[in-house]
Amino acid sequence: MKTEAFVDLQGEAPVCGSVHRAEANGGDFIVLTHGAGGDCNAPLLVALADAFAAAGLSTLRCDLPFRQRRPTGPPSPSDAKHDQDGLRRAVTLMREKFAGRAFLGGVSYGGRQASTLVAAEPALVEGLLLLSYPLHPPGRPAQLRTAHLPNLRTPTLLISGTRDAFGSIDELQAAIKLISAPVKLVAIEGAGHGLLQKSNRGELPGRVVQEFQSFFGSH
To answer: What is the 3-state secondary structure (H, E, C) of the chain?
Structure first.
């Protein structure tokens, strides 16, 4: 397994990040992106990219366009479309390098934009991985981010902590009933919105990869 910089600044949606290239690879790949407060060097993304590559799935962890424009701070609502453009371009560029199945995933805000994009463009990838999907803002359970879910036709795997203030397991279970594609929710006991913590640092990346292989191996 080797890691290499991945930068393509052409067009209006530049792609910047790192590829963890699997040594034994059937050509499948996954593009992973970060949440509103992070970037592609977030410990969770690095750990997952290493674990996926070790399991034979080449992985691009990339910065969303909003993060490329400013190194800190959250995105604004006007950033969403451009961030989706960046994810589309990242998948397109990876398809030029790898001939297998394409997957797209993201943490929190990144997963929200990935799922919104794929709901509108179902042929973009073969599967979605949503980590800590931000179902609603903390303390505001009525403000659900579910409008696009009925249009989602792509198999989707969700990984969420049982202490996530952005959506309880019960709330997520109710929300994913809107998705007509194959879908599975995996609960990480004791984890908050960040998922990766001292108590699970050694086992979480492998658990996610195992769940991914089990779910997408049958779809």
So the answer is: CEEEEEEECCCCCCEEEEEEECCCCCCCEEEEECCCCCCCCCHHHHHHHHHHHHCCCEEEEEECHHHHHCCCCCCCHHHHHHHHHHHHHHHHHHHCCCCCCEEEEEECHHHHHHHHHHHHCCCCCCEEEEECCCCCCCCCCCCCCCCCHHHCCCCEEEEEECCCCCCCHHHHHHHHHHCCCCEEEEEECCCCCCCCCCCCCCCHHHHHHHHHHHHHCCC
